[in-house]
Design goal:
With 91 residues, the chain is α+β, with helices and mostly antiparallel strands. The protein has one domain (2-90). Helix content is 23%, strand content 27%. The protein contains three helices and five strands, in the order αααβββββ. Strands 1-2-5-4-3 form a five-stranded antiparallel sheet, covered by helices on one side. Strand 4 and strand 5 form a beta hairpin. The longest helix has 13 residues, at 7-19. The chain starts with a helix and ends with a strand. 16% of the residues are buried.
């Protein structure tokens, strides 16, 4: 679970999402799992999938990106059909 492995990130995601009135997404943070790390070789990428996704294929369903910008990082959430499916973290 993200909250167990990365508690500061989980807290930050919840806080930022609530501040942006994304309450339905904030409610998902406690149940997010780190399914798989991003396969890219970049050392500045700390992104991870929270659901299974076949590499190189588009997400199925209604997709949107929710940008969050904590200090010193870029964080984007990929959301498909209202579910957080990928957390992009660039530091």
């Amino acid at each position: 679970m993200v909250r167990d492995v990365l508690p500061r990130l989980a807290y930050g995601l919840s806080t930022e999402l609530c501040a942006r009135s994304e309450d339905a997404l904030a409610a998902q943070v406690d149940d997010l799992r780190v399914h798989a790390p991003c396969p890219c070789p970049d050392n500045f990428c700390q992104s991870f999938h929270t659901e299974y996704h076949l590499p190189g294929t588009p997400w199925e369903g209604v997709h949107r990106t929710v940008p969050l910008l904590p200090e010193g990082e870029m964080v984007n959430l990929d959301v498909v059909d209202g579910r957080i499916v990928y957390v992009e973290i660039i530091v």
